[in-house]
Amino acid sequence: MNRNAYLKMTGFFKASRQRYNLLFMVSRVFPWIIAGIYGILCILTALAWPGRLVRFMGVPLAVFLLVTAARVVIHRKRPYETFRFTPITFQKKPKKGKSFPSRHTASAAVIAAACMSFDMQLGQILLVMAVLVAISRVLCGVHYISDVAAGFAFGIIVGIIGFYPFIF
User: Fold this and answer.
1) In whole angstroms, what is the distance from residue 143 CA to residue 146 CA?
2) Is the separation of the CB atoms in 159 and 61 below 8 Å?
């Protein structure tokens, strides 16, 4: 993608209050919903299956820490830094660098995998939400497609490896 593609994308959402609000919901509210559901399931796991709690919390934590470390080491500029445009970030000051891989996407994907080990239908719903979060990160102009693809793949792969006996 180039500067014009990002300008068209962000302009499309900035031009309509409804589209802007929808993007806000998916980009900023969905991650909180995913985290909230995960938090509730952590509590339920602690109460019902305390032996699974370390895995249920440890795998997503490992993904979060590994992705955070990779972002620091790689320190890829964000699209709005490279192409010099104003992103839709829904925050006062956009972040600099640390674009690859997308931590929002990796976290949402691994949490979906964790939730699949708890309840397959709930996990599938969260997986759809994770995909929407990934797409929203690109539409906001804060990540490249490769950032979210790498984050999603890493989150899912580690989630499947970490929860394989419980998912299938």
Assistant:
1) 8
2) no
Cα 85 to Cα 96: distance, rounded to the nearest angstrom = 13
CB 111 within 8 A of CB 40: no
Give per-residue pLDDT as tens, 63-117: 999 999 999 999 999 999 999 888 887 667 778 889 999 999 999 999 999 999 8
In whole angstroms, give the CA distance from residue 97 to residue 142: 10
Phi-psi region at 90: left, alpha or beta (left = phi > 0; alpha = psi -120 to 50) = left
Would you state the structure tokens that stand for residue 71, as one six-digit string? 């972002």
State how far the alpha carbon of 73 is from the alpha carbons of 60, 68, 98, 152, 154, in Å: 20, 9, 8, 19, 16
Distance CA 155, CA 110 (A): 4
Contact 112, 130 (CB under 8 A): yes
pTM of the shown model: 0.90
The string of DSSP letters for 98-157 reads --SS-HHHHHHHHHHHHHHHH-HHHHHHHHHHHHHHHHHHHHTTSS-HHHHHHHHHHHHH
Whether the predicted pLDDT of 168 surpasses 60 = no
Reduced to 3 states, what is the DSSP secondary structure of residue 168? Answer: coil
CA 57/CA 52 separation, integer angstroms: 9
